[in-house]
Design goal:
By secondary structure, the protein is mainly beta. The protein has a single domain, classed as Pectate Lyase C-like (3 Solenoid), CATH 2.160.20. Helix content is 5%, strand content 33%. It has a twelve-stranded parallel beta sheet with strand order 1-2-5-8-11-14-17-20-23-26-29-32. It has a twelve-stranded parallel beta sheet with strand order 3-6-9-12-15-18-21-24-27-30-33-34, with helices on one face. Strands 4-7-10-13-16-19-22-25-28-31 form a ten-stranded parallel beta sheet, with no helix packed on it. The longest helix has 12 residues. It is globular. The N terminus and C terminus are likely disordered.
């Protein structure tokens, strides 16, 4: 396995013991005033920015329900950390006709958690981006987005993390409906981004928008600006334990793509993509579930791609664009690729001149009982997998999942769920579980396996192929308590 590391600065965020301190609580409300209010529940402030400029480190800012219009500047230097939280999950709605949240400043920004909001553009004609995180005149780092609904960009990406930002966590959120040839998340020239436990889909009709079949990948990791910031190439990005479904984008894009812009440098490296569930439930054609362009030293392992996935290649496309160097040192281990309808005609699009040192080993393959694609002339073929596991994993029918669009009037997601985590778990339990006697059970290579599965449960000593481990029924739910 390639050596994948999390940056030293990211590890304390993930594993540090809770700090002992007295947390002060402050309040923001639509009927508050920024002066002379004191930020108490009885006398709340009006704006999140005003609150951040005044609260001490280790504070909690609770935002009361309502619509908050206009750009919100997230800033402040908090070594311990400050949390800005919707008092009631998803009831504080942040809207703007431009970027809704901007997280960059002339001064250092660190230690801010954004939790429980409904964040979107206010309609067509909005300015670019819904949320942007980047270095400004100083470093921006240790920013966390948790349990938010981020949706409906009418111009550019929903979330852009770029230009030197570092140690950014995107955990337990729900993303849908980006705009045009842009992404749900654009991770661009940064160090140390963790994307985990999120749900990604599109359902433009649910927002009263046409399906243009022109949107780009759900998550892209790249470097568009070469050496103009402190990083040449995005690095140390982990994309794990997410659910992807309902493709309504272009036929040239992917669920997850490393590299995109054809620059002369390796656009992404030291990336890890693991334990993700990808559902091919849409009639719209995509390029491939995974894409790698001009990137290196990355691992795709223990992912489950299932369904009648109309695509130009069911599993992957590895290639160069523009001035890209050769794709190199990419590993695919313990993944499960299953098309129960038998429509998998092409496994990979991998021109031999565009890649080197690609390892395909111990993956599961099923094409509904039909012959597996041969892919003659491609650099990556199922025949390259000397430990291939072929057979039916007996995964459930994934053709008609509910898209968990948020309905604020009912205070629930389509399907009846009241939290993102509940919708996430329902999708996983409905579509990721192979049968007890399914092909791939107990057949993964444990040396190339994450310690947990898509639900965060520990893997067995003889783990299963793909994202889901058939153990007990205990679910380790995450998220925050309100």
């Amino acid at each position: 396995m390639r050596s994948i590391r999390l940056t030293a600065s990211l590890l304390p965020m993930l594993f540090a013991a809770p700090l002992a301190f007295a947390q002060a609580t402050f309040w923001v409300a639509t009927n508050g005033v920024d002066s002379p209010a004191n930020g108490s529940e009885a006398s709340p402030w009006r704006s999140i920015t005003y609150a951040l400029d005044r609260v001490p480190d280790a504070s909690l800012i609770l935002v009361k329900p309502g619509i908050y219009s206009g750009r919100i500047r997230i800033r402040g230097n908090f070594p311990v950390g400050v949390t800005v939280r919707s008092q009631l999950r998803y009831q504080a709605r942040l809207r703007a006709h431009e970027a809704v949240l901007t997280i960059y400043d002339d001064n250092e920004i660190q230690g801010i958690n954004i939790e429980g909001f409904d964040i979107a553009h206010d309609g067509a004609g909005a300015g670019g981006l819904v949320v942007q995180v980047q270095d400004g005149g100083a470093d921006t780092h240790r920013i966390t987005f948790r349990d938010n609904i981020l949706h409906d960009s009418y111009n550019n990406d929903i979330l852009k993390i770029n230009n030197g930002a570092s140690d950014i966590t995107v955990s337990g959120n729900l993303f849908y409906n980006q705009n045009g040839s842009d992404e749900h998340i654009d991770i661009n020239s940064v160090d140390g981004v963790l994307v985990e436990d999120n749900v990604f889909f599109n359902d433009f009709a649910a927002s009263g928008r046409p399906v243009g079949n022109d949107t780009s990948s759900y998550v892209v990791v790249k470097d568009s600006n070469g050496g103009s910031d402190e990083y040449l190439g995005a690095r140390n990005v982990t994309i794990r334990r997410n659910v992807f479904l309902n493709w309504q984008g272009s036929s040239g894009s992917n669920f997850v793509l490393l590299g995109e812009d054809g620059t002369a440098n390796h656009e992404a490296f030291d990336c890890l993509v693991e334990n993700n569930l990808m559902l091919g439930n849409s009639a719209n054609t995509m390029r491939a579930a995974f894409g790698v362009k001009g990137s290196r030293d990355s691992v795709f392992r223990a992912n489950t791609v299932v369904g009648n996935l109309p695509s130009l290649a069911f599993a992957m496309r590895l290639n160069r664009e523009g001035s890209n160097p050769v794709v190199s040192n990419i590993d695919f281990h313990n993944n499960l690729w299953s098309d129960p309808t038998g429509s998998m005609e092409d496994f990979s699009d991998t021109p031999p001149a565009d890649s080197q040192n690609i390892e395909l080993r111990r993956n599961g393959y099923w094409n509904g009982g039909n012959a597996l694609p041969v892919d003659s002339g491609e650099a990556i073929r199922i025949a390259n997998d000397s430990e291939a596991v072929t057979g039916n994993p007996q995964l459930p029918d994934s053709s008609t999942p509910d898209t968990p669009v948020w309905n604020p009037a009912l205070a629930q997601f389509d399907g009846g769920y009241t939290t993102i985590r509940a919708a996430f778990v329902a999708l996983v339990e409905a579509y990721a579980q192979p049968a007890n006697n399914g092909s791939g059970i107990g057949m993964a290579d444990p040396s190339e396996m994450p310690a947990d599965d898509i639900l965060g449960r520990p893997r067995d000593a003889n783990p299963d192929l793909g994202a889901f481990e058939r153990l007990g029924d205990v679910i380790f739910a995450d998220g925050f308590e309100m």
